Amino acid sequence: MNAEQKLAEYFDKLMHFAKNDSKTPEDSILLAGAMMAASRVIFYEHLDAKEAQKLFDQGGLDLIELVKPTIH
Description:
The chain is mostly helical.
């Protein structure tokens, strides 16, 4: 399995988890925040600080763009 396939599989598993465990929009947003926090820890454990921050910054921007339309 290549990296793209693994990433898609992980994404599908996380979305399945979110769909089945999040009861409210707030739950979903909090889960997304927890996923971001976990990703930051993992990035910093396995990459140098500059690479980790770049990936985290881009992921954060992607989430903000996704969530922005739902914020009232």
